[in-house]
Amino acid sequence: MVSVKLENIKSLEFLKDDIEKLEVFLSSFCNSLEGTLKEDVSNTLIAGGKRLRPIIFLICAKTDDYDIDSLIPAAAAIEIIHTASLIHDDIIDKSALRRGRKTIHKRYDKDTAKFVGDYLFTHTFSLLNTYRDPDILMEMSVAAQNLVKGEFDQLKTKGNLKQDEGVYFRKIDEKTASLFKVSCVLGGMLSASSEKDIKNMRSFGKYLGYAFQINDDLIDLDYKRSAIEIGKPIGSDLRQGNVTLPLIYASREKGFRSGVKRLLIKDKILESDIKEIIDLMNNTNAVEKTKEKLGSYLDKAKAMAGRISGYDRRKGLEQVCRIIEESVSSKGAGN
């Protein structure tokens, strides 16, 4: 996964104290809960998340009138709904690990995990309601709807190696980019930014979300990394039948498609099967083509960042793009 280390990013130093305030707020929220709910929410919400979405929210809110205390509830809401979506994802994908820890449905059961996710979803809107602005609630409502629709569309297309890029990008626009977009837009709205700036922030969030998901697709193929390092087993998407962008590109070659289909239809996909699929993929140009696509969306995101008013906002968003850029190595699948 992409690692955000604020202490190493000079242009984001103004956020260090603010992220600490966010952590205190999230910890206080967890401590206000009881029993299993408290344990499950704490283990998921305070388990080393990157806070990337709240970070871009705070960057977009950075103006002369920047007031962290008024922004914390929205920043927390963004991280909480993201965490809720991960819990629901884990149930659907039958994931055993999340951020290096056992998922809730593995520690307990699916019903417990579902209710924890539902609680976090509803708490998101409770936090945002403190702003008494229906437009803010509407923006998050649309994002939440798209999150669910994206998961549903992914379910419908599992294992379909004939799907094209158009289908893939529609899914990730809903499933991944929706939260990046709303994080940027809420930052613009709560800082009373111009309509032009908010429009450009929305576009920035879209392109950054695309790049983030494509990078995640590549990381899923990197069997040189450990499951603990990236927070989930290598090849998770392949095991679950999720068709990623590298898989779409590789499947354009008939030899690859026939070989992989034989492995993906197995009742139980073994570690050796995952390695064989990745090795077959590395014999195509899929990984390089995917990296090129990732780079093109990062370039688009940086271009949009350059159109947003405010030095700190522009430089902060450009630096977030560089974080993702630097996480993509030139060696091997997903490195």
Task: Report on this structure.
The chain is mainly α and about 325 residues long. The chain has one domain: Orthogonal Bundle (Farnesyl Diphosphate Synthase), CATH 1.10.600. It is built from 16 helices and two strands. The protein has helices spanning about 15-30, 35-45, 50-60, 70-95, 105, 110-130, 135-155, 165-190, 195-220, 225-230, 235-240, 245-250, 255-265, 270-280, 285-305, 310-325; strands spanning about 95-100, 100. The protein has a two-stranded antiparallel ribbon with strand order 1-2. A hairpin with a 2-residue loop joins strand 1 and strand 2 (about 100). Helix 3 (about 50-60) runs antiparallel to helix 4 (about 70-95). Mean pLDDT is about 90; it is low at about 330-335.
